[in-house]
Amino acid sequence: MTKKEPDKEPMSEKKFHALAATVRPGTTFPRLRDDPRPLRKTVWTVVLAGGLYALTAAGFGLAGSVPMAPVLIPIAPENYHFWEMAFVLPLFVSGWLIVSIAARILGWILGGKGTFRATAASLALAWSIPLLFVWLFETAIAVLMLLGMGQREFVDLVSAPGTWQTVFLGYLGAGALWLWWLNLRAMASAQRLRWWKALLAGTLTTSLFLGLLIVFVR
Question: In the chain, where are the structural domains located?
């Protein structure tokens, strides 16, 4: 008599949750909430996003780029992207954990009945997917600079009112709005909140997470 091996979740099933959340958050987040081990299916998306942002930071550093926004921590601008390459992955993971804890506490205050695991797993997807969307744009900029486009040339291009400025600001704005929307859906499902409570919780947790990015990520 042979011993039956325990079923193992195929990698495609993990990828399914990340892909489905982009088009069917109303189905994906409840599935994560009801899953006994939801973190196994989503924590990799946070690590992936952090790792890819680290590679892009390295590209900016090799291109000789300096942050286009004011630096808010005591690091020399000319070395900032190389330091960012080292800290952006730990920042994403620690920021995700800290804000997930805050989201669970906020959900409890608002009468939510979800668990920390379901909340953290849902927020991992809610943040990672829009971050990867924005990463594509930032990586394209890094590649252009590595190929010889000057930073001053790029800044002049997106600073002047016109098509390129509209595309630049519109793309980043779309990423922020998408993150907010998925965050709202994640909080509503994971914490079982009414829509107005989910709106409040989703807006506050989105603001907290975006605040971390504004301070550290360039």
Answer: 25-216
